[in-house]
């Protein structure tokens, strides 16, 4: 009797496992699309009206569509690399995929760039979410006390701490497979606050109060030199390129998909859905925002309609931003969490502290979650460190802009292209090989231009972190 029970238990466990010994994947095209949208549609969508103003209608629309097409194409190339063509084994991470097809030291470079960028994004999300929370407090204060109220000043630090505490709890969600509901909520939030910006822009345009726009964007004049115009155009192009890039997390999302139908086919469909939805949203936000606010469109679309009124609508948009960023934080942090936990599991395979799961009942209906001691401590420490960095370096967004510029070309174009060439044994000198090299060169130049622009902007005395770091050191010495 006992042997029969043991056999049934073993059979049940086997049914719950995938072909690689991991828990059975349940992801679908829609959950993958939600993960992608959560990762790429950030609050930066509200800056696209400014980007359109720098480039104008002709270059602005063309640039957004071109970079969307490039991102979709290279993502499709990467999706085909999820499984090893010889053994059929899965590549669970971007880094492992590069190791399978390119080997050598390239996978180490890939991992270094990818994980540093992802860690930086978590800090960026903490800062940006706190800024939105401060904006809500200021809006309510100004509405209550009057627009000239002196007491309406708030520190970001308490809000960062609150975000950090929330992320500690959410970080205990074990992996991407359990994260689908949070991604769906975050994706809905991103469409919601972008929708508010689109609605306000549309209302201003149809009322006939739209500002002046031009085919070439902001015009050179007394307040804008040729050099300034050029640098602004480079920044706008960089913002658009980064806005549609998501290959840095694609393989990790693809690893959540069930094995039938083939993961690469499902992932390609998810790529099309997510990229089409994001590009449409970007075009509406950028285009209508530019049409409404003209060549003087601000960096944040919502502030172009007045910071104070309608205060409740601006508050609602900022609430949506906060909820979205809290969810997006978990999406971009999961690869970092899994990297460390996979390494620790392999290094201490017999350790109960590292590997043992403890079911914790959270309701009378026997609803339970699994806790792991190592996961609890390690992920909590990660969130605490990210929060402390956010509080110590509120200018970190400028550092992230440089990290994004550096990571764009290798993660979005170079590695997917190289793996595609290796996988399909494309011969040097063929038409396809030459086209892939041309694409690589163009995106390399774009990445270099973004990096140079970020460095130039950072060296400005009012924005470069060095000068603010000196100020922090002086405060500490005092």
Automatic annotation (TrEMBL):
- Source domain of life is Eukaryota
The biological processes this protein is annotated with in GO are:
amino acid transport
Q: Which GO terms describe its cellular component?
A: membrane
What UniProt keywords apply to this chain's record, in alphabetical order?
Amino-acid transport, Membrane, Transmembrane, Transmembrane helix, Transport
User: Is Transport one of the keywords UniProt gives this record?
Assistant: yes
Where can this protein be found?
Membrane
What PANTHER family does UniProt report for this protein, alphabetically? OS05G0424000 PROTEIN-RELATED (PTHR48017)
Protein name per Swiss-Prot or TrEMBL: Amino acid transporter transmembrane domain-containing protein
> Which source organism does the UniProt entry give?
Dipteronia sinensis
Lineage, top ranks: Eukaryota, Viridiplantae, Streptophyta, Embryophyta, Tracheophyta
């Amino acid at each position: 009797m006992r042997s029969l029970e043991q056999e049934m238990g073993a059979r049940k466990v086997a049914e719950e496992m995938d072909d690689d010994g991991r828990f059975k994947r349940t992801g679908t095209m829609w959950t993958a699309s939600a993960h992608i949208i959560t990762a790429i549609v950030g609050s930066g969508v509200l800056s696209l009206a400014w980007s359109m103003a720098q480039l104008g209608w002709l270059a602005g629309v063309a640039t957004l569509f071109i970079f969307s097409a490039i991102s979709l194409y290279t993502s499709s190339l990467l999706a085909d690399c999820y499984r090893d063509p010889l053994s059929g084994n899965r590549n669970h991470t971007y880094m492992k995929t590069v190791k399978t097809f390119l080997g050598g030291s390239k996978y180490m470079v890939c991992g270094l760039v990818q994980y540093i960028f992802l860690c930086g994004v978590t800090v960026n999300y903490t800062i940006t979410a706190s800024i939105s929370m401060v904006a809500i407090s200021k809006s309510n204060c100004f509405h209550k006390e009057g627009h000239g109220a002196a007491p309406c000043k708030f520190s970001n630090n308490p809000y960062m701490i609150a975000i950090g505490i929330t992320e500690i709890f959410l970080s205990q969600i074990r992996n991407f497979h359990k994260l689908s509901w949070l991604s769906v909520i975050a994706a809905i939030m991103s469409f919601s606050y972008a929708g508010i910006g689109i609605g306000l822009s549309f209302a201003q345009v149809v009322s006939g109060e739209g500002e002046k726009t031009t085919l070439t964007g902001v015009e050179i004049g007394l307040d804008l030199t040729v050099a300034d115009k050029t640098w602004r155009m480079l920044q706008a192009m960089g913002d658009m390129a980064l806005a549609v890039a998501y290959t840095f997390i694609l393989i990790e999302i693809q690893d959540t998909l069930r094995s039938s139908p083939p993961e690469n086919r499902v992932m390609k469909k998810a790529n099309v859905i997510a990229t089409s939805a994001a590009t449409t949203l970007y075009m509406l936000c950028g285009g209508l925002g530019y049409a409404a606010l003209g060549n003087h469109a601000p960096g944040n679309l919502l502030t172009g309609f007045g910071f104070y009124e309608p205060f409740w609508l601006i508050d609602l948009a900022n609430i949506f931003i906060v909820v979205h960023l809290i969810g997006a934080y978990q999406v971009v942090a999961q690869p970092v969490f899994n990297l460390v936990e996979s390494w620790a599991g392999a290094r201490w395979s017999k350790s109960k502290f590292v590997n043992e799961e403890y079911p914790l009942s959270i309701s009378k209906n026997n609803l339970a979650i699994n806790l792991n001691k190592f996961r609890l401590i390690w992920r909590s420490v990660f969130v605490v460190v990210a929060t402390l960095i956010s509080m110590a370096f509120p200018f970190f967004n400028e550092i992230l802009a440089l990290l994004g510029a550096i990571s764009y070309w290798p993660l979005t174009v170079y590695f997917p292209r190289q793996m595609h060439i290796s996988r399909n044994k494309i011969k040097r000198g063929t038409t396809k090989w030459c086209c892939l090299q041309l694409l690589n060169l163009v995106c390399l130049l774009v990445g270099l231009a973004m990096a140079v622009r970020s460095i130039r902007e950072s060296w400005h005395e009012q924005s470069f972190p060095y000068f603010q770091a000196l100020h922090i050191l002086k405060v500490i010495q005092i």
